[in-house]
Amino acid sequence: MSVKLLKDMLNQVNNIIDIECGIMDENGLILACSNEERLGRIDDNIAKVMEIDEQVQIINGISYQRVNANNRYEYVVFLHSHNEESLKYLSLIALNVKNISLYYDDKFDRSNFIKNIMLNNILPGDITIRAKELHVANNINRVALLIRTEGVKDAHPYEVILSLFPNRSKDYIVVLDEESIVLVKELKSEQANKEIERIAKTIIGTLNTELMVKAMVGIGTVVKNIRDIGRSYKEAQTALLVGGIFENEKSIVYYNNLGIGRLIYQLPTTLCKLFLNEVFRDNSLELLDTETIHTIQKFFENNLNVSETSRQLYVHRNTLVYRLDKIQKMTGLDLRMFDDALIFKFSMMVKRYLDKVEKGT
Hints:
Blueprint lengths: L2 H15 L3 E5 L4 E4 L12 H6 L4 E4 L2 E8 L3 E7 L4 H25 L1 H9 L5 H10 L5 E12 L6 H8 L7 E4 L4 E7 L6 H19 L2 E6 L3 E3 L3 H18 L5 E3 L5 H6 L3 H11 L10 H12 L4 H8 L3 H15 L6 H21 L3
Parallel strand pairs: 9-11
Antiparallel strand pairs: 1-2, 1-5, 3-4, 4-5, 6-8, 6-9, 6-10, 7-8
Helix pairs in contact: 1-3, 6-7, 10-14, 11-12, 12-13
């Protein structure tokens, strides 16, 4: 919490009641006091105050009240008086400390700070200042993982992810909505692909085991500066969007591995339709049956190798050649030629993208 806010509040209180009062942490360190000479000292009575499970105590004529601020901080307010009226003042000071803590958590909490960076709700020039105030390291390798869940209902994915990454000073968990959570993970090194993949698999496996929910993880690129966390988050968003179209069988999608799909996703649908009409006249792409499409996919998976593809399809080599000849007659593209195969591959991806758009997904 900001000590300045505590000091300002205490000065205003002291102008009204004119009794020495102050605020200390759970270790007895005096953070704010109307008697400035006591700032930074340790209160001798702190051990007695903390060992007795009473909220208000009077020790040597001084009134003490413990303040639990949002279950995160423990503060103690004190007043050099113990009459009935003074105890009322003490309660009012304690209430103000709690309210300031709640306000401060809302405005300056680390996770909220990271969320504001992600959503561009903070000016770039303020990021370094806020990071220093919150003791958030500036130049450290981090990556954003966007976790999207399905079939949540009464489950609480946030609690599961929080249990996996309890270090709140290094890893930040931001809840966007019921189905979307962002993990901003600190990494040991920039080249940490194995570490990132292990983290993503752990998240998916734990959510599935403990909550029985399906999850997908989109992964942005590793960034070195805290100001670039927003970019990594947007890349993770794009990874899930594009991956949902072209790699929907995968539960972990890397932004860096989207390839041509990322390019197609940015093209206008009118341009995509024009491209398909020019490549496949007479709507020849729609005439290809399921068996033919499966043959083409296997052919691409085996790098246009006829022998290996026929072996995996359990057909004679001549049968595969016949099918490829048939495709060439229907579409005008010979998939054994690299350029034609590239055009066909690109066209299938464009078609898949348009189908998704038309379905509103």
